[in-house]
Amino acid sequence: MPRQIPYIIANEGCERFSFYGMRNILTPFLLSTLLLFIPIGDRTAEAKHVFHTFVIGVYFFPLLGGWIADRFWGKYKTVFWFSLIYVAGHACLAIFEHNLEGFYLGLALIAFGSGGIKPLVVAFVGDQFDQTNKNRAKLVFDAFYWIINFGSFFASLLMPLFLRDYGPAVAFGIPGILMAIATLVFWLGRGKYVHVPPAAPNPDAFSSVARTALLARAPGQSRPGLMVAGAGAVGALLSLCMTPSWGFVIAACTALVLLLAFGGIGVSMQLERARGLHTDQAVEGVRSVLRVLIVFAMVTPFWSLFDQKASTWIVQANTMTSPMMSLFGWEFQLLPAQMQAANPILVMLLIPFNNIALFPLMRMVGITPTPLRRMGLGIALSSSAWVVIGMIQLWMDGGDQVSIMWQLLPYALLTLGEVLVSATGLEFAYSQAPASMKGIILSFWYLAVTVGNLWVLIVNAGVKNDVVSGWIANSGLSPIAFQMFFFAAFAAIVAAIFALYALRYKMVDNYRKTA
């Protein structure tokens, strides 16, 4: 095992405590403190909007961090400097606990800093391995994901208590201290890391090949791919024009989705035209990336379901009863935000269970648990979790008092889905990425989270529409129950499509060949 791995794992554990420590108390803080000036009937919707806008920012800025690392600074320097911005953001949250503009500035800095380093730490782990020890990479990626949830568990359990008992300055200040420690630990390992230098300007880079494919002319043929990409650009401009009615976040993210989707389709239609003008290896590399992006696109519904455990599920838990519990003579009641601690503790149990028992058993009966099979099953399980949470909501809408402990079942289903999708996705994204694009391709993996949260904002905005709200009222479901079953159906349909695509996908191996 590379000796530098403990520094990266320790850094990730502290960083994840800091991130989830503030993230998991963000919705309760917004509802109870920062947004009190908003009428109570609109406060929940606004809190969800702020939360998911923040998450969109966190998972958008990996594009910037990945580009800077791949082209200019390298992964180590980019992670270090963005981490300092991250620490400054935490400081703003603690200082501006009652100042709207100052607090939002802190959220913006955290989104920028956290997002900037997010794809790079994962890729940096992969850089420490080569063909001689790549068999240990899966173990380390699992350990990496395990430590994420170790930090998340204690953050989810403790920070709601600190928020309740000591106030937001302390509750947001402690994660800031942990992020400062994470930065220090990462810096201490600087002399032991394998540093893969930034890629030099490459005439066969993904963007160069894509541009050539779109613009190249073929004798006697039109350029249908360019027309498709142009349609995406027009759609993006129209989306930006809708900013006054949609809001900037929805309009800008929709524009980005249209550019990526139609641009990718256009490039794939004319990719063979780049052959001869670029190397065959470069053309096949672009083809591989486009196939990976299709996988990423189909994972977006999972993220729309998963991230709502920190918004929609907390809103539901606020209206549930919390029974008195006893542990070694200590009596306590679970706070709604503390239910999120069920997710990381289950992850820490399920990752070793899958590797020791589930996957070997599947192999014994002749089923190979390939990455895409695991991810498709995970999306389906997330759908089932939302069916259960929707049934609980129907129970509550009927007037019954429901214990918060009933949320454990959907948490278990969602967490099993997370282990199969997210932990597998990190490994899949690194292994499928061409050498010159590992930072960028992982940025696109995180961009899938941005798009997933975009679906949430669009659905929430749609529910406010008079026509849609009238249709929901006629359905006999409450708005929150309708959204729950809608997201469950959304994920189930995509899981079926994902399974069909997985049958056709051919895996590649892009680990380094030498140390």
UniProtKB/TrEMBL annotation:
Where in the cell is the protein located? Membrane
| The keyword Chaperone appears for this protein | no
The yes or no answer to whether the keyword Glycoprotein is present is: no
One annotated GO molecular function: peptide transmembrane transporter activity
- Organism of origin is Duganella guangzhouensis
Name assigned to this protein: MFS transporter
Tell me which NCBIfam families the record gives: yjdL_sub1_fam
Database matches in InterPro entries: Dipep/tripep_permease, MFS_trans_sf, POT_fam, PTR2_symporter_CS
Q: Which family does it belong to?
A: Belongs to the major facilitator superfamily. Proton-dependent oligopeptide transporter (POT/PTR) (TC 2.A.17) family.
Any stretches that span the bilayer, and where are they? Answer: 20-38, 50-69, 78-96, 102-122, 143-163, 169-188, 246-267, 288-306, 345-365, 377-396, 408-428, 440-460, 480-503
Give the record's GO biological process terms: oligopeptide transport
Task: Report the membrane topology from the UniProt record.
Answer: Multi-pass membrane protein
